[in-house]
């Protein structure tokens, strides 16, 4: 795309709220907003064990740069202050306090990681600072009663795991499941999804569990132990680094389980290539986004828009990395919230608009997957589709499945 080319933005279908056009409201500002600027903060793991996900923040910064070049939001430029917390809750707290108390941001947007977001949730809610579209699928982000200033974006980890558990029960005879999970709230939420579906049969079906710490150099011993259990199914709930190690070790020891992999680690670029695509054949995961490498989307307008964005605004990023697809889509959702705010850029109105979304499509969401929120619905994306890796691409199969907790009970 040439420098003078205009990147098309998919028009979002949005409910008109309260019968008032956004621009008709009187100008109202909280800290971080003015006639010319909207300042938002973020913590992101640009270093440390989850650094492969730092590309999310870079993609979002690139998206806001693009918006600013096109005039910003309602005439205001977006300033994103994104700080490296190295996937450390302590650093997340330190940086978040700085962002709120010194930089005076309007909101904390897209902060990464379950542990980091848990560490800052109480503080932000006490300060009444939006913790909006955070990068984690923990079940806790939909608790609008206790934490009205916190809202997630992706399907919950527990609901995703429940999708796998239901598939296993319906399609695999005599299932014996081994689970490898990160030993914190991130990993344990996936385990809870299996517990919710299996109920009293959990201990019969799940024959082995092993956890790892993010400081562990490898998970080889855990994989060997899980194979020894006699399991014919492996579910891995891990960061990309450890997911790749697991896939390699499973192949190395000649284990042939039906392998399920959590969606946040399902990137071909970030996990499967480092693990060896030949070792990844047959792995099952779930998706809500289009894979830019999938031939089925070669003529898709949304994928073309995303690739054009990456070429022009984030050329150093990998367009095949689903983390960049995610960052792009979340930034688009936040753009819509800001547009709905109009000239009422208060923290209270920001959360109100985040809880009044009806986006029937985004360029990189799968067909049939929308973004709908409400005052009692803090789960923007609630649908997924199963997919299987063939050595080159993820192949979608089955129907789009509702992944909200209510639908899976």
UniProtKB/TrEMBL annotation:
SUPFAM superfamilies: Periplasmic binding protein-like I. Keywords: Signal. InterPro entries: Leu-bd, Peripla_BP_I. The keyword Protein transport does not apply. The keyword Repeat does not apply. Residues 37-390 form the Leucine-binding protein domain. It holds the Pfam family Peripla_BP_6. CDD domains: PBP1_ABC_ligand_binding-like. Belongs to the leucine-binding protein family. This is ABC transporter substrate-binding protein.
């Amino acid at each position: 795309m040439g420098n003078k080319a205009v990147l098309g933005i998919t028009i979002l279908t949005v409910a008109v709220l309260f019968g008032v056009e956004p621009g008709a409201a009187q100008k109202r500002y909280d800290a971080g907003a003015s006639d010319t600027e909207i300042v938002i903060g973020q913590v992101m793991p640009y270093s440390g064990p989850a650094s492969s996900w730092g590309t999310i923040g870079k993609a979002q910064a690139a998206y806001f740069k693009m918006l600013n070049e096109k005039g910003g939001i309602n005439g205001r430029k977006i300033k994103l202050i994104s700080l490296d917390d190295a996937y450390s809750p302590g650093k997340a707290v330190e940086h978040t306090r700085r962002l709120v108390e010194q930089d005076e941001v309007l909101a904390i947007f897209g902060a990464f990681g379950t542990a980091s977001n848990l560490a800052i949730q109480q503080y932000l809610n006490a300060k009444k600072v939006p913790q909006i579209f955070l990068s984690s699928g923990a079940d806790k982000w939909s608790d609008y009663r206790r934490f009205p200033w916190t809202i997630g974006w992706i399907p919950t980890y527990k609901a995703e795991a429940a999708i796998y558990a239901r598939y296993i029960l319906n399609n695999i005879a005599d299932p014996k499941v081994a689970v490898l999970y990160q030993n914190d709230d991130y990993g344990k939420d996936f385990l809870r999804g299996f517990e919710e579906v299996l109920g009293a049969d959990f201990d019969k079906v799940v024959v082995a569990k092993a956890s790892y710490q993010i400081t562990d150099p490898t998970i080889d011993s855990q994989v060997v132990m899980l194979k020894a259990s006699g399991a014919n199914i492996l579910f891995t709930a891990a960061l990309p680094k450890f997911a790749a190690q697991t896939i390699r070790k499973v192949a190395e020891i000649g284990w042939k389980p039906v392998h399920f992999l959590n969606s946040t680690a399902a990137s071909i670029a970030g996990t499967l290539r480092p693990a060896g695509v030949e070792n990844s054949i047959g792995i099952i995961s779930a998706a809500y986004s289009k894979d830019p490498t999938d031939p089925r989307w070669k003529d898709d307008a949304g994928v073309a828009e995303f690739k054009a964005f990456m070429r022009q605004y984030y050329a150093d990023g990998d367009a095949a990395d689903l983390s960049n697809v995610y960052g792009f889509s979340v930034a688009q959702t936040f753009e819509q919230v800001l547009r709905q705010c109009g000239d009422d850029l208060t923290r209270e109105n920001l959360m109100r608009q985040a809880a009044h979304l009806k986006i029937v499509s985004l360029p990189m969401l799968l067909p049939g997957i929308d973004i709908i929120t409400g005052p009692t619905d803090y789960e923007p994306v609630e649908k997924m589709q199963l997919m299987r890796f063939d050595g080159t691409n993820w192949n979608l199969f089955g129907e789009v499945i509702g992944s909200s907790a209510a639908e899976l009970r």
